[in-house]
Write a structure and sequence with these properties.
Order of helices and strands: HEHHHEHHEHHEHHHEEHHEEEHEHEEEH
Radius of gyration: 20 Å
Mean pLDDT: 94
Structural class: alpha/beta
Shape: globular
Oligomer: single chain
Number of helices: 16
Distance between the termini: 25 Å
Strand order of the largest sheet: 1-2-3-4-5-7-10-11
Strand content: 15-25%
Length: about 425
């Protein structure tokens, strides 16, 4: 049922105890040496479109305690991280107790520090055996995922309280609507890389979630989400489970705008699938203006980030409003942030984005959490270590974490609770 404005207003001033304030991370981008993962193989075949291999990433597989201490010391109450399927099930049907125990220790470490763990069961990467069998493109892949979810949920027991099945399963659709997202020849480069991975793995079709075409994968990924929800809840019905979608703030410009066409193409089936869960995760990094010809460039004079994206923190308001109106579900902002080489932009971005979210909340949109991407500068897929989304920088040799000014900005907002003011 849609959230009641009256009920929301009644509990609004006491949200600090239940509202999820956190940071988001992801296994492959953080842990390092994820050698059984499809992305690791794609990074190392020739040709590859990855700028650099992930390597040690930011060494969070061994430094997770230090990272959790940072989250606690920032005054946050939630830590979003992903469990690496390729570590849990390195070969089909073979589950690693040692790796399951590792992630259980991480969850215990969260609880010991007063942090609510939010577990992502799949943050893009899959085991090589899964990708080499056709990945999400082949019938039965959703069943593999459901078995993995059930195995993980059983091992974690009552430690699980919040979970997302898939991370941004609509990302390839989002990319298809971006104007000039990649240079000429990029599509051919992807095909050549996937063909090389197929040869290296002795398969005829190597498929990865965030590389290639969306269409062949969508049906099985939707089924995977639904079966994943069922599998997790069959073990622990109290777990709040959702799916995290990449959602831009799509704005119609002029008559015959293609905004609604884009929404149907990118989000339509996923909004329907999301209703099988308890909440919808919103991952927002900007807006897109669309006229009758499609995507438009940023308006003249708009502030831009170092990577050429528009600086537009207000986009979070539009994204959470749309996600709730399309599903009727409570919203958790599972990712929001900015690629800022100059941290001064992030310092301004964070409070503006939270204020934008607050405007939607005051109108009755049930936003239950804000989780910032990301804790640390990390491995950003095709772009390697160039993008800087972290509240902390990381020395690439020593792995020393160093706070940026933006870290204290988020911490001070959470501590002051000023966003809750009427």
């Amino acid at each position: 049922m849609p959230f009641s404005k009256a009920a929301f207003a009644e509990g609004y001033k006491n949200r600090s105890n239940s509202f999820l304030w956190g940071v988001a991370t992801a296994g492959h981008q953080y842990e390092g040496n994820n050698t059984n993962a499809d992305t690791w193989m794609l990074e190392h075949v020739s040709p590859t479109i990855f700028q650099t291999p992930s390597g040690d990433a930011v060494d969070s597989f061994s430094r997770w305690r230090e990272d959790l201490d940072i989250v606690r010391d920032l005054g946050l109450n939630t830590f979003r991280f992903s469990i690496e399927w390729s570590r849990i099930e390195p070969a089909k049907g073979e589950y690693s107790i040692a790796m399951l125990d590792h992630y259980r220790r991480v969850m215990d470490g969260c609880r010991e520090r007063g942090l609510t763990p939010m577990v992502t069961f799949n943050h893009f990467t899959t085991p090589i055996w899964f990708a080499a069998a056709g990945g999400w493109e082949v019938e039965g892949s959703a069943d593999h995922f459901a078995r993995y979810c059930e195995r993980v949920a059983s091992h974690m027991g009552d430690r699980l309280s919040y979970a997302t099945t898939l991370n941004e399963p609509n990302i390839l659709k989002i990319i298809s609507w971006l104007p000039l997202a990649f240079p000429p020849g990029f599509a051919e480069g992807q095909k050549a890389m996937l063909a090389a991975a197929a040869r290296a793995s002795g398969s005829t079709r190597f498929s990865s979630a965030n590389v290639g075409d969306a269409e062949p994968k969508t049906a099985q990924m939707i089924l995977a989400h639904k079966k994943g929800v069922e599998a997790i809840k069959s073990v622990n019905p109290r777990v709040k489970v959702g799916v995290s979608l990449s959602i831009t703030d799509d704005q119609a410009v002029g008559p015959d705008s293609k905004r609604d066409q884009k929404r149907q193409d990118v989000y339509g089936v996923w909004m329907e699938a999301a209703r099988t869960g308890d909440f919808i995760g919103v991952q927002n990094y900007g807006r897109q203006r669309l006229d009758r010809n499609g995507a438009m460039p940023p308006p003249a004079g708009a502030e831009m980030t170092a990577n050429g994206e528009e600086f537009y923190p207000d986009s979070l308001e539009g994204a959470v409003r749309y996600a709730h109106s399309a599903t009727g579900l409570p919203v958790i902002v599972t990712e929001n942030g900015i690629d800022g080489i100059d941290d001064a932009q992030r310092v301004r971005y964070i409070p503006l984005a939270i204020e934008a979210m607050q405007r939607a909340m005051k109108d009755g949109v049930p936003v239950h959490g804000y989780i910032h991407w990301s804790l640390l500068d990390n491995f950003e897929w095709l772009f390697g270590y160039g993008p800087k989304f972290g509240l902390y920088s990381v020395d690439r040799t020593t792995f020393v974490r160093t706070a940026k000014p933006s870290a204290s900005v988020l911490a001070s907002i959470v501590k002051s609770k000023r966003f809750l003011a009427a």
